[in-house]
Amino acid sequence: VKKCSLTGRWVNDLGSNMTIMTMKSNGDFAGIYYTAVSATTKKIERSPLLGSQHQPYLLKQPTFGFTVHWTFSDSITVFTGQCFVDEDGKEVLKTMWLLRSHADKPIDDWKATLVGYNEFKRLESPME
Ligand SMILES: O=C1N[C@H]2[C@H](CS[C@H]2CCCCC(=O)c2ccc3ccc4cccc5ccc2c3c45)N1
Predict the structure, then answer these.
(1) What distance in Å separates the CA atoms of residue 46 and residue 50, rounded to the nearest whole number?
(2) Contact at 8 Å (CB) between 110 and 91?
(3) In the chain, at which end, N or C, are there fewer CB atoms within 10 A of the end residue's CB?
(4) pTM score, two decimals?
(5) Residues having CB within 6 Å of any atom of ligand 1
(6) Ligand 1 geometric centre to CA of 39 (Å)
(7) How far apart (Å, rounded) are the C-alpha atoms in residues 105 and 124?
(8) Is 49 exposed, middle or buried (0-12, 13-18, 19+ CB in 10 A)?
(9) pLDDT along the chain (128 residues), means of 10
């Protein structure tokens, strides 16, 4: 069964959600990210994501990475992690991320990268 193909809708522990719409045969994917939180005063907007995963038929519980280009701010986040299937057959994405915000000058570079982690669960569509 095609567990851990990332296409579809996911929600994380912060309440952010992402929809992965396209998946190429080599595991490259694209989608939209809507963050529930931000540290800027700008209005949060949907932002595009691009990523790549190992193919579940080749590697069970595949690893992946993706980049979110925040349209509403001058920052970018890269997520990387792995898809696990628990005993109830539920998929969970365990990820860590680096959030790079824009620094005005090199001396400010030291404070421009935040690190964290998020877990995502699949948002089942109502039919299922
Ligand atoms: O679902 C998830 N949502 C959160 C985590 C990892 S990504 C993160 C949302 C990030 C939105 C952009 C942002 O907050 C943002 C935008 C611009 C910033 C400019 C300057 C900053 C200076 C210091 C700290 C910041 C922290 C976040 C920032 C920005 C800065 N998972």
Answers:
(1) 13
(2) no
(3) C
(4) 0.94
(5) 12, 14, 16, 35, 37-40, 70, 73, 75, 77, 97, 99, 101-102, 114, 116, 118
(6) 5
(7) 45
(8) buried
(9) 91 98 97 96 95 90 97 95 94 98 97 98 80
